[in-house]
Amino acid sequence: MENREIILEVKNLSRHFKLGMKKVVKAVDDISFSIYKGETFGLVGESGSGKSTTGRTIIKLYKPTSGEVYMNGGRIDGKISREDNAYVNKNIQMIFQDPMACLNPRMKVEDIIAEGLDIHKMTTSEKQRRDKVVEMLELVGLDEQHLERYPHEFSGGQRQRIGIARAMAVEPKLIIADEPISALDVSIQAQVINLMNDLKEHKDLTYLFIAHDLSMVKYISDRIAVMYKGKIVELATSEDLFKNPLHPYTKSLLSAIPLPDPITERKRKRFSYDASVHNYDVETPEIVEIIPNHFVYASPSEIEKYKTEIK
Prior knowledge:
By secondary structure, the chain is an alpha/beta fold. It has one domain: 3-Layer(aba) Sandwich (Rossmann fold), CATH 3.40.50. It is 36% helix and 26% strand. The chain is built from 11 helices and 12 strands. The strands form 2 sheets. An 8-stranded mixed sheet has the order 6-7-8-3-9-10-12-11, with helices on both faces. The chain has a 4-stranded antiparallel sheet with strand order 2-1-4-5.
């Protein structure tokens, strides 16, 4: 993996929010990871773990409290030139959780999808603009007859396809998908995931896929980072994380995935995570590579324990 091209690198990123005069919420607390070109990097955790805040800080919707973000080797957090800002806005696009909330209800589909084309001056005529929008619609399974409609005239799955088309229109290098299927019917979720996989293959895309459903993340991701209260507690390849979960929080999330067999599901034991099992007042934890490409947030004594658990 070391020889692969890194498209996005996050170093010691933190994003804190002040509540009142004294209280500070550490939504993202000193996390680091890299995303390689052409991969899908899954970021999972319960609601409030900081995963969506991470995505929004990377795309500059939030200003980081501390830390650094690099894209293709160039730093993109904080104050950057107008040209670099335009580069970031074009090459990092976001697909949001609620497709209705992120589509302007007063704009027709053609104008919604073409908004990025207009901002970045990617077309030179009305015909070229329209042709590009039609191409994007067909790419996501819609067609020219949908151009003149408004968002409320579509189903949830169709609206999310429009959101994907809008993100794809400017030909980005990285797409941050923030819970892109959680607001959709179960029957539609697989269609949207399959569409995203097809687009990744045909358009050479890279994804940061944010979700709380580990079973779906396993299906789409090459590597997965697990977040808990603003920290990345485990990071490994998708296969290794499911085969050898080490951190107790990861084990807890995996044990909550429902199984299709009702008999097995009834007999299966759930694993509840209790943060008090860690004695971090005595031993300072850090993110450590237990085996190649498998990282765990642990204290020195826990590291030795985890090494014995590797199969």
